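Bumping my old thread because nobody answered last time. Still need a sequence for this structure:
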């Protein structure tokens, strides 16, 4: 737990009545300190030091609200009084209140090398999905972050998200060395090693968990990804199958299985796996989306279109190529409203920033507002302005196309999709939205070709032809019957 510290300085003149207050606080006799402070504050109501002592005493009594009120009163009198800043910031930080950021920023301006303040700012930045800011503050906290497992985990995650895999590996190695029994620390290190292309090292990192019989679904899922990266598809399939047995309602496991089937051109097996998933989760949009792509490979365009329609129905906010923003929100269960509040404060200072406008449109769209509602129209205006300011900002065009589709403005959606595909013919989201728009416009002549392009675009991200054909997956029975066979 991070704690800000400020020394209690006793008056040089021992006859000063505050010396008794400081002595009581040092002795943890908070009730006595509060009693003494009543008369002291009557005599000196504008003494920031006395109000700070009152905040310390209330905090020591476990009365955080009263303590915060006292610290705030001290700061009204003396805005840069360090002890009051530290006390108020600590209370707000432990409450997870982002108001602490303003106070901590002021503290680090006054004390640039305050490692605790930087570590707190790092954790608060992580909580609002600001990984760039979090990584910067964790770095400035120096060795302190290394003593805080939660901060170290967040630091490593942010470095990985910022594409600094090697530094992330170093951080997670520290975390694992300090917590060798932590399965989360071991998984984190293995995940970032695999991300950095060090799949063999990732497998070695995970091996102690597997040999110890760790059956956590998150361990099995990550191990499957790592073994597939090491070209050991049979073991990857076994691990995923074991995970599904343990958690048959986990949508991500079926999607992972389908991706392996897609990679190895075992499309029928992938469909069978997804059918099993849809039996467990009949309203899961990602499963319909994944099955629709596999049906394209099987040239069953009618079924693929039907699955895409179902994916859109069950999740109107579904986007084929998930943005990084969508992924931080899903991992951290972040409230889009909280992110919007931060974003709007930045937009107030930079109203013509295309990236900020796009992010506002994306976040509002993520909340799935009703077409025509105030939030929906703000999302549309934001996306339109982003595209006007930066025509090559393709994610903004994709959000705008989705909003046009939801508003029933099909021709405008088609236009945006074509603009995107002119710039990037392999943009999967634009292809997906164009398929939906043309289908709604009852213009189906292009659909077979577009469906093939969508499948090809997805396939372009997989391994080369030889690696894809290394294994074939065959599902002999329902996955729960433990009858998945991998043939070489």
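Sorry it took so long. Here it is:
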């Amino acid at each position: 737990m991070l704690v800000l510290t400020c020394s209690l300085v006793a008056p040089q003149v021992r006859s000063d009545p505050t010396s008794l207050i400081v002595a009581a606080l040092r002795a943890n006799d908070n009730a006595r300190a509060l009693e003494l402070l009543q008369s002291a504050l009557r005599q000196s109501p504008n003494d920031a030091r006395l109000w700070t002592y009152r905040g310390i005493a209330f905090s020591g009594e476990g009365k955080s609200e009263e303590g915060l009120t006292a610290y705030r009163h001290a700061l009204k009198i003396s805005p840069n009084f360090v002890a009051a800043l530290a006390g108020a910031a600590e209370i707000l930080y432990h409450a997870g209140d982002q108001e602490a950021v303003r106070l901590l920023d002021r503290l680090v301006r006054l004390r640039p090398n305050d490692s605790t303040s930087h570590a707190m700012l790092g954790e608060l930045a992580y909580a609002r999905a600001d990984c760039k800011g979090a990584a910067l503050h964790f770095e400035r906290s120096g060795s302190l972050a290394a003593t805080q497992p939660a901060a170290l985990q967040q630091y490593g995650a942010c470095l990985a998200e910022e594409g600094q895999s090697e530094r992330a590996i170093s951080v997670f190695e520290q975390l694992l060395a300090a917590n060798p029994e932590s399965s989360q620390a071991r998984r984190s290190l293995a995940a970032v090693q695999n991300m950095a292309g060090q799949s063999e090292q990732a497998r070695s990192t995970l091996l102690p968990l597997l040999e110890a019989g760790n059956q956590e679904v998150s361990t099995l899922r990550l191990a499957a990804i790592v073994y597939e990266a090491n070209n050991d598809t049979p073991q990857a399939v076994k691990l995923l199958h074991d995970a599904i047995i343990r958690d048959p309602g986990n949508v991500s496991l079926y999607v992972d299985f389908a991706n392996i089937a897609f990679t190895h051109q075992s499309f029928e097996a992938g469909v069978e796996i997804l059918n099993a998933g849809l039996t467990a989760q009949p309203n899961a949009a990602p499963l319909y989306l994944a099955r629709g792509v596999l049906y394209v490979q099987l040239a069953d365009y009618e079924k693929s279109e039907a699955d895409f329609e179902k994916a859109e129905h069950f999740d109107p906010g579904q986007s084929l190529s998930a943005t990084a923003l969508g992924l931080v929100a899903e991992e951290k269960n972040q409230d889009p409203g909280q992110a919007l509040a931060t974003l709007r404060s930045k937009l107030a200072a930079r109203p013509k920033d295309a990236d900020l406008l796009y992010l506002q449109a994306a976040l509002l769209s993520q909340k799935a507002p009703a077409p025509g509602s105030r939030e929906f129209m703000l999302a549309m205006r934001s996306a339109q302005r982003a595209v006007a300011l930066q025509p090559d900002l393709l994610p903004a065009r994709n959000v705008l196309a989705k909003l046009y589709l939801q508003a029933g403005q099909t021709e405008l959606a088609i236009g945006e999709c074509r603009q995107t595909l002119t710039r990037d013919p392999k943009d999967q989201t634009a292809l997906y939205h164009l398929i939906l728009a043309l289908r709604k416009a009852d213009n189906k002549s292009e659909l077979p070709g577009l469906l093939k392009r969508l499948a090809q675009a997805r396939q372009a991200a997989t391994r080369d032809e030889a690696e894809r054909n290394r294994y074939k997956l065959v599902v002999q029975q329902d996955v729960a019957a433990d009858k998945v066979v991998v043939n070489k």
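The chain has a mean pLDDT of 85. Let me know if any region looks off to you.
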